[in-house]
Amino acid sequence: MLDATGLTERPRRLLVLDDEEMIGLTIVDIAIQAGLECRNTTNADDFMSCVGDWDPDVIVLDLLLPGTDGIDIINILAGISNRAQLIVTSGLGAKILNSACDAAMEHGLNVLGSLPKPFVPADLRELLSRMTLSGENRPTGGGQYFSPDLEDLQTALSQKQLFVVYQPKIKCKSGLLAGFEALVRWQHPKHGIIPPDKFIQLAEDYNLIDQLTLVVVEEALAWFSTRLTSYQPRLSDLSPEADLCLSFNISAKSLPNADVFDWVYFRCQTLGIHPRRLIFELTESSTMHDSPNAYDNLTRLRMRGFKLSIDDFGTGYSSMVQLVKLPFSEMKVDKSFVLAAMKSKESKAIVGAIINLGHSLNMSTTAEGIEDQSTLDYLSSLDCDQAQGYYIA
C-alpha cells in the first residue's frame, strides 16, 4: 500500500524488552490483536539488535532487567536518536515510572506512556489506541533517521522544500474553533518528511533561523488570510470569526532582531490581518538572551497588538523570572503534564496549578497534547480556555 507521499507503508511494529517472558508474550498477544507485528525478547543485546535491524515503531521497555536497567537502555536509545514511541513498564510504582518517562523525554525520546505492573489488557489497549492517534504513519525510506547538514538545509530553503501544517485549537468549554498553530515540516525529495527536531537546531546554529521563520510566516499568513476571507460562521456558531488566531513558534535567537518583527507587522498590514490575530510562542525552556533588544522587541510586539505566549510552561528553569519580565498574554501547559494528567495525581495537580497561575495573571491558558475526551473534559472542569492535540485534529 502507498501513502500520500508515494512511499510504501508497512504494518506497525512493536518490540518488547521484559525479563519476564510470560509478561512479554502477554503484551505481544494484545498487540497482535491490535494489528501490530511483534517481537519479544528478555535480553538487552538481542533487543538492541532488533532496534537496529527491525526498526520498531513502538517499544515496550521494562525498567528492571538483569545485568542492566531500563535507564541504561533509555540512554542508549537516545544516543542513537531512536524515534520509536516508548512505553515504560514496571512494578516499582507510579512515581518511579513517571520519573523514568520524564527522563526519557528529557533525552528527546518519544514517550507514549507508562504501563504499571500488574496491568490489565485494557491498559495496554488504551496506550496502543493513543499510538494510533498520536503517531504519524512512518513510510519506509522516511526521514526519521536522516541527519541533515548545513548544505541540506540551505538547499531546502532555496528550493522551497519547507511547508506548513496547521493544528487547530478549540475552546475547551464549547469545542468551537479558536485558531491554529502553524508548524513547519520539510519534504525532502529523497528522505521524505523531516521532523522539525532534525533541522530547527541546525538553523539556529548556522544563523538561518530568521530566514526559516520568515518562510514559515509568509506561507502561513497567506493561508490564514484566505481562511479569514472564506470563513462563514454558522448561525449557531457562538465563536465569531474575529476570535480566530494564528500561532507561530519563535526562536529566542530571533528576539533581538527587530527586522523580523517589523517585516511581520508590515506583511499583516498588506494582507489586512490585524495583529491581535497573531500569537508568537516562545518556548519556556529555550535560552532567553538577556538582551535589551530582545525585551524591547517583545514589548513593541505587544504595543502593536500582537499576542505573546509562553510555550511548554512547567518544563523550564526561569519560569517566574520570564513571567515577571515579559508581557505574555497566554500560557501553554506542556503536553508531558497533560498526557499524564489522568493517570498521575502529581501531573494533575501541576496542570491545575499552572491554569490557576495563568488566570491569576490575567493570561489565557492553552493545554497541548489532548489525546482523549476524558482529558478534554477534565481541562474544561478547570476552566482551561483552549486545547489542542491529536484527539482534536
Task: Report what the structure shows.
This protein has 14 helices and 16 strands. It has helices spanning about 20-35, 45-55, 70-80, 95-105, 120-135, 150-160, 200-205, 210-230, 260-270, 290-305, 320-325, 335-340, 345-360, 375-380, and strands at about 15, 35-40, 60, 65, 70, 85-90, 110-115, 160-170, 175-190, 190-195, 245-250, 280-285, 305-315, 330-335, 365, 385. It has about 400 residues and is of the alpha/beta class. The strands form three sheets. It has an eight-stranded mixed β-barrel. Helix content is about 40%, strand content about 20%.
Distance between the termini: 24 Å
Succession of helices and strands: EHEHEEEHEHEHHEEEHHEHEHEHEHHEHE
From the alpha carbons, calculate the radius of gyration and give it in angstroms. Answer: 22 Å
Strand content: 15-25%
What is the total tally of β strands?
16
Structure annotation, total helices: 14
Helix content: 40-55%
**Main sheet properties:** 8 strands, mixed, barrel
Q: What ranges have pLDDT less than 50 throughout 5 or more consecutive residues? A: 1-8, 134-142, 234-241
The structure class reads alpha/beta
Tell me, what's the shape? globular
